[in-house]
């Protein structure tokens, strides 16, 4: 039975509702109306061999929805977060000259983290956002640990869009032991644990957001080291600080994609 991504409840306790990756109110801020769909080539690595398939997906994330969020979350804390974030987000989308306080930056980072968690569920499994990350964001109202958010100014893209890169990293194996009645012990195999993570980019008008998240400190640190666009973006989380918008330099869409795609490949990791 389908459970809510954030509170974990299911029917009949709660009713699942359609959740947009980006709230419909943001459509009024997007500079261009996007085509309804496009064809995307997806690379799968199920057995280690890349297989390319094509699929039709919405061109704009304003059209992407999923039914994995309950009405109580959708109309409750998530709606409150959207309302608070839009006070900061809308002027940035318009390219206005504003001062973003540290409190504003924290709200924007929380909104970006929530949006990336929802966006990650749009794709097929594996879902790379740990349950404890989702419950932390819902209960604490801030991004969880092992999650970093950056923001940058960009040239307006013809449509609001996201890019989502999933990663799985093999961790050191644990021996599987078997013991006989006489006490003799021997190894019968190795249990191989995995660490999952993702990098998601969100681009709307003049703003680009980069979210790196993982279920382990090791993979998160590797993602941050690989991606950290220190010369082109400002870190929103952790440790949000005040900054002036727009930020220099102004990135092109290709530069934004180039930063996000650094996640493919990471040494000792594979992508799906």
Question: What does this 3D model show about the protein?
Answer:
The protein is of the alpha+beta class and 272 residues long. It has one domain. Helices cover 26% and strands 34% of the residues. It contains six helices and 15 strands. The protein has helices spanning 71-75, 77-93, 102-122, 131-140, 217-227, 253-260; strands spanning 16-20, 37-44, 51-58, 65-70, 98-100, 147-154, 161-170, 174-179, 185-191, 194-204, 207-214, 234-237, 243-245, 250-251, 269-271. The strands form five sheets. Strands 6, 7, 10, 11, 12, 14 and 15 form a seven-stranded mixed beta sheet that branches. It has a two-stranded antiparallel ribbon with strand order 1-4. Strand 2 (37-44) and strand 3 form a beta hairpin. Helix 2 (77-93) packs across helix 3 (102-122).
């Amino acid at each position: 039975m389908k459970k809510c991504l954030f509170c974990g409840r299911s029917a009949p306790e709660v009713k699942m509702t359609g959740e947009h990756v980006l709230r419909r109110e943001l459509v009024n801020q997007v500079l261009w109306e996007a085509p309804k769909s496009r064809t995307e080539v997806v690379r799968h690595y199920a057995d280690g061999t890349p297989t390319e398939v094509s699929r039709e997906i919405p061109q704009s994330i304003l059209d992407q929805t999923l039914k994995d969020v309950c009405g109580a979350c959708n109309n409750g804390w998530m709606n409150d977060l959207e309302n608070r974030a839009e006070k900061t987000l809308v002027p940035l989308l318009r390219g206005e000259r504003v001062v973003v306080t540290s409190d504003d930056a924290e709200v924007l980072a929380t909104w970006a983290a929530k949006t990336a968690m929802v966006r990650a569920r749009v794709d097929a499994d594996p879902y790379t956002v740990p349950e404890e990350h989702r419950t932390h964001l819902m209960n604490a109202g801030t991004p969880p640990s092992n999650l970093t958010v950056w923001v940058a100014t960009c040239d307006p893209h013809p449509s609001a869009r996201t890019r989502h890169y999933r990663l799985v990293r093999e961790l050191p194996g644990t021996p599987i032991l078997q013991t006989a009645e006489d006490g003799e012990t021997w190894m019968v195999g190795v249990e191989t644990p995995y660490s999952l993570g993702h990098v998601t980019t969100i681009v709307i008008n003049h703003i680009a957001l980069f979210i790196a998240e993982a279920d382990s400190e090791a993979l998160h640190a590797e993602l941050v080291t690989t991606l950290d666009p220190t010369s082109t973006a400002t870190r929103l989380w952790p440790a949000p600080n005040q900054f002036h918008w727009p930020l220099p330099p102004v990135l092109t869409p290709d530069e934004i994609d180039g930063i996000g795609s650094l996640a493919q490949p990471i040494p000792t990791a594979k992508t799906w």
